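Researcher: I've got a protein sequence and the SMILES for adenosine-5'-diphosphate. Could you write out the 3D structure of the bound complex as structure tokens? I'd like something to compare against our soaking experiments later this week.
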Amino acid sequence: MNNNNSVRPKLLIENLSKSYWVNNDELKALQDINLTILNGEFVAIVGSSGCGKSTLLKIIAGLENGYKGTVLLGNEKISGPGLDRGMVFQEHRLLPWLTVEKNITFGIKDKKSKVTATTVSEHLDLVGLSGFANAYPFQLSGGMAQRVSIARALVNQPELLLFDEPFGSLDALTKIQMQKEVLRIWEAEKTTMILVTHDIDEAIFLGDRVVVMSSRPGTIRKIIPIDLLRPRDRSSYEFTQIRKAIYHEFFTEAEEPFSYAI
Ligand SMILES: Nc1ncnc2c1ncn2[C@@H]1O[C@H](COP(=O)(O)OP(=O)(O)O)[C@@H](O)[C@H]1O
Ligand SMILES: [Mg+2]
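Model: Sure. Here is the predicted complex with adenosine-5'-diphosphate in place.
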């Protein structure tokens, strides 16, 4: 944890369940999720495809209604999207006809927003894209486009930054570089971050805690604190032991014999 204020809960989730209705059949996406996230904490959530990770993030982002349970940001019930939460998706979602700067400011119509050309430029510096304000998305690599979406999510100085498998479509080396960048940004900005990923190494590299979800309906199987100093060495004995423990959680659920040859 990276600041002294960290004992204050930032997000409180109690008995959260969410179902979708498909052709009159109930599809239980999430069941009885309980999770408290502290101010300044970095929480990584891992789970297999379809276990409800994106549903959970969308509920926190205020993009999904009709759930049971309590979701509080600070002391406020989340009732819709807001500038206090930023989100980064797997695909960068930049508009091709707008420059980087316009992409970052597009959609900010809220009068409370304090975003100016200076804050945009500061955030481009923060993500390592100084001088790219007037570039168009087609002039950027995949990693650079994802940096722009991080800058766009951070520019309103949100209380919470939500990542939904943000590096899933990047090549392996760019992905590792971006993970280091996110760590640097988290340490600099002290924003509370929630990262959803199916990449177990990414979760251990970044998280203060790793939340392991079961397959659908998504429940929390285990929460594993990662008490390793940063930056973390993926080949260290301690890292490897945590990786084994998390793989074990997945594969005991599937009740399949599993070899630890990883
Ligand atoms: N809008 C929707 N309508 C119906 N079913 C949905 C909807 N969104 C997600 N689901 C279903 O809910 C489950 C969880 O989805 P999701 O949260 O996207 O999983 P994950 O992000 O872990 O892959 C899946 O079975 C998915 O098909
Ligand atoms: Mg998803």
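Model: The first strand starts at residue 9 and ends at 22. Residues 53-54, 164 surround magnesium ion (ligand 2) (CB under 6 Å).
Researcher: Great, I'll pass this along to the crystallography team.
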